[in-house]
Amino acid sequence: MSRTSERRAQRLDALRKKDQAGGTSALLQNRKIWIAGGAGVLVLIVIAAIAAAVMAGTAAQSAPATAAAATPNGDLVGKEVAVPNMGGTHIAVGQPHQAYNSIPPTSGPHFDTAAAWDTPADKTLPPEQWVHNLEHSGVVALYNCPQGCPDLLAKLEGFRRTGVRSKFGYVKLLVQPYDQLANKLTLVAWNFYLKLDDYDEAAVRAFFVAHQDKGPEPDTP
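The structure corresponding to this sequence follows.
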């Protein structure tokens, strides 16, 4: 091989090695770019997930309480409530029976004998007895006064004397202590009740007009 040919071969070999080195460097550079890009995407995904979790937690904290979390019947003060009829099966004193479908009960199993309408207001009777008074189309006024409430009882007694009269010429009103509700006064008729914070003459009168003599047995004293 001539000296000129040898030099040309050396130059070609050098160029070939340089090209190979450059290709390897480019491949490594591209690999670094892909790795960096993938890491960046992963960081963005993690940031987005954290942001979504924070937003969800904030929304849960600011959301209003659901109806299931509310105190039962807590929003019914001053609003008459209709309760599904449970019928009027008579039972003996002490006889087990199905649970009433509301507090206070407005219908359902009850004793054979109703209470006298003029039963003293401080004498506690079982619901199974005064539910019978509801069946006779009267109204039971339930009061909850742990510290006593003579003014309320006096007003109820006044209504008994001067309020809406039944077809028998007297007010079918039975007053009873009852600690199963947080409010002060609850009026009960067959299939209905009305919770009040205190005595309200207009509300009491309207309730009697709507329900006295309109229960299952209006012709029973």
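The chain has a mean pLDDT of 80.
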